[in-house]
Write a structure and sequence with these properties.
This protein has 216 residues and is an all-alpha fold. The protein is elongated, with a radius of gyration of 20 Å. It comes from Rubrobacter marinus.
């Protein structure tokens, strides 16, 4: 795959990932406002809406891996070693979130049937809670670093990359709406990259169309 095609794919993936995660986060926010703390996790994990939203999160996280590769290809030459470090960190951080989303998608509904008290416990024995917290922090810091690399490269609008950095850091907050800024930033950046690719392709076709034949 050429670098140009990878960048375009990355733009599409950023747009898709941001949209999927945004839908999931908005629905989660609506549910939080509607039920508050009255709905136990074991009850929520047994619903159809939970199954749909958890799949959105899982697919969005998987697509975000593709987005990271494409966005890195977009600014690879201008971001230097910081860009490579940020890209690798974003892959690791997103990979951890994929694992977390997989557990929420497939493990939680089964646990809701077999061990509802386990899901409803405020704290669980063992390293599970720590693993979730560490995964979330790694994801936030890795994408903030990746965003800083893009900000340094200056190949995308400053406002969009700043939104990405701020949005990534906000995901650390344990609130239903804490990821909305990051979701919107991904959609924004995806649209920017796709618009760039479309403009370049149009300019290339126009240039070929007006090229004069060489005299023999």
């Amino acid at each position: 795959m050429s670098s140009s095609n990878l960048v375009r794919l990355g733009g599409m993936a950023a747009l898709a990932a941001g949209a999927l995660l945004l839908i999931g986060d908005l629905w989660t926010l609506v549910q939080a406002l509607r039920y508050g703390d009255t709905l136990r996790f074991s009850e929520e994990a047994s619903t159809t809406s939970y199954a749909v939203v958890s799949v959105l999160y899982l697919v969005g996280a998987l697509v975000l891996l593709i987005a990271a590769a494409g966005l890195y290809a977009r600014h690879e030459g201008a971001s230097g070693s910081l860009g490579l470090i940020g890209f690798l960190a974003a892959l690791v951080g997103t990979g951890l979130i994929v694992g977390l989303m997989w557990a929420l998608t497939f493990v939680a509904p089964s646990a809701a049937i077999e061990a509802p008290a386990f899901l409803d416990a405020e704290e669980t024995a063992g390293p599970l809670n720590a693993g979730f917290i560490i995964s979330g922090i790694c994801f936030a810091l890795s994408w903030a670093l990746f965003g800083l690399a893009m900000l340094r490269a200056r190949v995308l609008p400053r406002a969009a990359t700043v939104a990405l950095v701020v949005g990534a850091l906000l995901t650390i907050a344990p609130l239903p709406a804490s990821s909305l800024v990051l979701d919107a930033a991904l959609v924004w950046i995806g649209l920017i990259v796709l618009r760039e690719r479309t403009s370049e392709a149009s300019a290339s076709r126009t240039g070929r169309g007006f090229r004069q034949p060489q005299a023999h």
